[in-house]
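Why run this: before we spend reagent on co-expression, it is cheaper to look at a predicted model of the complex and decide which construct boundaries make sense. The entries below are exactly what would go into the expression plan.
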Amino acid sequence: MRADLSIIKDWVQPGTEVLDLGCGDGTLLDYLQTHKQVRGYGLEISSENITECLRKGVNVIEQDLDSKGLSNFKDKSFDMVVMTQALQAVRQPDVLLEEMLRLAKESIITFPNFGYWRLRYYLARKGQMPVSKTLPYTWYNTPNIHLCTFKDFEELCYQKNIHILHRTVVDDEHRTNWLNQLWPNLLGQIAIYHVTR
Amino acid sequence: MPEVIPPDSVGIVTPQVAQFDIPLTLECGKQLNSFQLMYETYGELNADRSNAVLICHALSGHHHAAGYHSMEDSKPGWWDSCIGPGKPIDTNKFFVVSLNNLGGCAGSTGPASINPETGKAYGPDFPVVTVQDWVRSQAMLADRLNIPHWAAVIGGSLGGMQALQWSIEYPERVHNAAVIASTPRLSAQNIAFNEVARKAITSDPNFYEGRYGEHTTYPDKGLMLARMVGHITYLSNASMGEKFGRDLRAQTLKFGLLDVQFEVESYLHYQGERFSKNFDANTYLLMTRALDYFDPARAHEGDLSKALEPAKCKYLVVSFTTDWRFPPDRSEELVNAMVEAKKSVSYAEVDSPHGHDAFLIPTQRYMDVFHGFMGRVAKEIPHAR
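The model came back. Tokens follow.
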């Protein structure tokens, strides 16, 4: 399992109801429903991923967050809304963040940290948009249209009165260490946040 | 005519009849003291009777869903693309039951059948049947076949409504339900189209209040018109355009008001005529009424999620982008209600150019979705063959 997912799974309480935005092939929900009696739905747009979720028996709903948003779900209809590695790819991440906290009291969000030192160094040295393991796209074909840093995200949470319950960062091997916990914005490659209202 | 039976076909099949001499009280209050249902089965029922799948037909469908009746058959059953060895409804794994609904005209008791109480055909006196009545009569067939529960109940369009009704009415007997290109209730526009179809039939001078049989005549012109209107709504503008465009039958315009000039006109005439030869007009009225009436939310002040509460199955809902008869937002309405009722549901909106008829056409994405879902259904079955 991807390391951000394996950290998230420890933050989800057994028996809760989860909505996973951009659920991919359903790995996280599959794990949560098998090991933690979690009930949930994934939203996804990739047809391959949807078929894979169906095979796994993960509830998957085809829905484009950019065009449809989340207005079809009622307030507080879930215990937890999760969004891994998708915040940076949506058109209005700030609106989506508010919507997530309308649907559930708590949210977990992971995204690639654009403040990571190697990315800063790449841009400074080459003068080109960084291409790395966590950001493997060139500027013109990237799905990531709203890249942000650890600091940017916290600033957004502050402005929107969103309370951060936990945060952590992992490196490209998906490990945490004391260094990246000490300087997360500089040394963390993937940011993982657990937030609430 | 199949020169050889394709390896992924269920092959030559023979319809069977189940006779019921048990009274069935219908939703309209009337009672049928006896009736028969015409059905076909494909594949084998396993030892613990856990691999049965029910196929519910759409408006003009019937029991012949897959395979051929003989080597002289020009076409296989109506859903042959999805039922057979290796197909999504895999007959190596599932025992498939498909029937002609009550009120139909393909062998099940309907308006053209003889009423045992009068010795004459029912005609317009055949009681109005609803989706609920169909599901109840299907449950009687399941009892007869000794099938305690369905691994899946599957249907497209009007068939999807039956699958939905099954899940609500007999939650213990349905493990999975696939509701394809369907809707939880018709829109005003849908009902309007149905009314145009009915009006076309009833205003045919040969209709005789539905007693055309007694006058040894037939409202074929009206039925043809009804089917032509229906057919337009089953296709999309794109698929009609692709098939016919504005192609002319002859090279030049004839400047006549009554000639069939465009290919699309000719096609509609052909479809309409063929249909009017094979379908009972009273049955068409009956089936469109069943469509109009279906609305499981009605008993719950319009709250669909409340109506869905009893259901225990896992749902698959599929819509098609160019279906304008039951467009994707009608399926989404259903999915939203299922989520609200905390039901297990997966939903796919399949990009297809084929309009409402897309549910009958094996496009890649559709088949992938269907295979994925049915593969998981098969895995759930204990001791699957």
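The longest helix of chain B spans residues 364-380. The domain at 16-185+295-380 of chain B is CATH 3.40.50.1820 (Rossmann fold). Bring this page to Monday's planning discussion.
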